[in-house]
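LOG
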Amino acid sequence: MRILFLGDVMGRTGRDAVVAALPGLRRDLKIDVAVVNAENASHGFGLAPDMAEAIFAAGADAITLGNHSWDRKEIIPYIAQQKRLIRPMNYPPGTPGEGAVDITLADGRRVLILQAMGRLFMDAMDCPFRATETILARARLGVTHAAILVDFHGEATSEKMAFAHAFDGAVSAVLGTHTHCPTADHQVLPGGTAFMADVGMCGDYDSVIGMGKAPAIARFTRKMPGERLHPADGEATICGAVIETGADGKALRIDPLRLGGRLSPMMPSV
């Protein structure tokens, strides 16, 4: 199985780039499942239902969110009925939406997609390790599911690495989001789980993690409220990863993907 995962979609330039490129990426890379993190798609803060629909129409099988899940209030009723849109599973009980989605492919194979959110330097949350253990108690890689993918939305690379090693062999991949900076640590762990601490963002890299430079710099230099942050609107780089799994659901390889914009290009082979 070949899985495409695209990192945080940032503002209009990121949305437009992903919607334009996703159909071709699915075709050219022979993708079976495509997942997109879109928690920053609406002006950098949250996701609106019409934006989610456009990403689904372009070929996403599932969309993940993160700490900006509720910045657009319209998403609350939408997430209740759109099961392929998921938020971190370790939000407190009673939070709208679900933290996992079970997808059945045309050939009958089942794919489980989860999202967990870290707790280091992030909002107070329930334990992501315990929440994942609860879900995996009823999902077995290579038995009930052909692949299990986790989007770990977090700030600290140490927490992301610890999480990946904790579930090495139990899931196909643990892919980090949130920092908007692609890391160079993509690897298959000893137990067969693909890992990358952060796959990067889909947005303009002539920026401060996707935001316009001047207001972002002012927040550091003046230490006082100023102009509202807004997404940079130059050409986007699409960043993500492609994972190939075997019959047992474990990863055979993981390759970074970078397309367009300012970063050096990298296109996985088929």
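LOG (cont.) second protein
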Amino acid sequence: MTKKELAQALAGKTDLSASAAEDVVNAALDIISDSLAKGEDVKLAGFGNFETRERAARTGRNPQTGAEIQIAASTSVGFKAAAQLKRAVNG
């Protein structure tokens, strides 16, 4: 499902217009992104948790040449599905 399809589904389930639903989806995703960028966890009851995870610097290999390269430390986003979402997906 794309962001546009999500907005259309939201418009179909509510009395929002398609453009208003798209604005709501974009605003919600912006808020989630901003919170994660600040290092805050985002918890959506019944859906799951988004959290930032620190990845340490490490040595990797270029698969084409086999040469060692240094991979810098970074922050990534992780998602853990809630039990309710897992049950819905698994039937």
